[in-house]
Amino acid sequence: MRFNDLMQTVLAAEGRSGLGAVTLWRQCVDLLAQNDRHDRSIMSDVERAALLERLNGLLPKLSETQRIATVVELGGRLRSPALVEFFANDRPAIAAAAMSRARLSDGAWVEMLPRLTPTARGVLRSRRDLGTATLQGLEAFGATDLVLTSDVAVEQEDMLLTEAMIVHADPPADVLQSAPAEEVAEDRSQIRNLVDRIARFTSTRRTGEADEAQPRAGVAGPRAFAFETDAAGTIVWIDQGPRAALIGLALNETALEGGSGPDGHVAGAFMRRSGFQSGRYTIVGGTMAGEWRMSATPFFDPRSGRFQGYRGQARRPYLHEVAAEPRAEPVSIAGLSADSIRQLVHELRTPLNAILGFAEIIEQELFGPAGHEYRDMAGKIAVDARHLLTAFDDLDLAARVSRGEGSEAPRAVDPALLVTQVSARFREQGDSAQIDIAMARGLPMVRIDPVQGERMVQHLLRTLISVAPAGEALTGACWYQPDGGDGRVVLAVDRPSSLAGMEEDRLLDPGYMPDGNWADGPLLGLGFSLRLIRSLAAGCGGALEIEPGRFLLAVPAIAETGDAVGSA
Q: What is the pTM of this model?
């Protein structure tokens, strides 16, 4: 390698400031850009390291605007991997300018990706001229990179990207050599670019979800099949469907709780050796799980007249033959799906727990004495962090309810004990509101998931306590209401005076808050809390009804008890 006099001169220059520092900075950058390209490098490792060390020394002497101007002037000449990595680890604005202009090979990008910051990788993802290996490398770091933003207003010169820095999407790699070096400024603003990227991401995500839904629908078994049984009522032949799931099912005994079998109509017809139409049959587990409707006729031996079994058809029930199952309302906040909400909560809960931990350390002086003002501030931070954690728990719960997750098999629960325990817990926590729930005698058991049932009552009381005026008692009643079948148990809580006269649509509006807000109101809003309670109730087969003067939380009872019947 020949001796480079200019490089030695630059490296030998003494420390400069002002315009001299800017000139020396530009000389170092130009030397790297010209002699350290990824496709041809005439620079030794020692010289490259010396130039990067000199740039690090000059970094504090140049403003951010001056460093951005250097990157913008380089434009398409930014082909030095070392220089790209140097700029990528600078301030976010400089990293964004460099990553949008750098011209590197696939191998150079892949080798550099692990050392890039999330901001630099985030800018790199938006480019459309990357090779296959680079795209695969970016996918290995996840679907997105976490980039924190700020709500603080910034001045024009502090913007992440200026109009001069915005560039068009780069051409494909095969035409890169023939493309002119000059850059074309975009007419669209940064906000327009951001909106377009969000729209493309949303449309791609919805398309992907629709494509995933089709294979899942194809996995389901047939909706009808023909069958034949032996003399004992056991299915021994089917024309289609999984044999392991159907062969061996019997018609002679009614289904036990949690097991497969027919209803009494089918079992009774079998005992009489008579035909039956549209009899219910329940299959537990497998692709054929769920309710079926069976129609069959007996057949006999033509010589002896002996009963030989049944031949018939089974089908899925029609819509008018089954009651519609209550479904939880799908959760969507700011356009985010349930999966996105759960991922967001997971990303936020970890740093919030760390903040809470450090606040408690300062408040309790675990690592040494702290001033009164610091301890008071740490206590306020801890209280706010706990409120945020409660809101995150509600978001996570709403997402799981929307997906039908987190619920156990319903069991018999004593509603009187449930309401009494939850009310006592609020009193033990020192809540200022008085809770007075009149319980009817002899309430029947209810069939709900115990955990979800406790959450329903707890969320309802906590929400109403938080919006009630200070010192106002929370009153209500709990009684049994015959309502077809086994009836239901109703917990009625009177509206606080702050909610008097409000219509149901306004109460359920997630964006509604009254004038002045509630000091201790739900962090996610009253509408979100009430919708969450309604979703929890629907998942248990119950309902949350809003009347002009009270809220009614109803859950299905197991058996009617006459002594527990109350009145509204």
A: 0.38
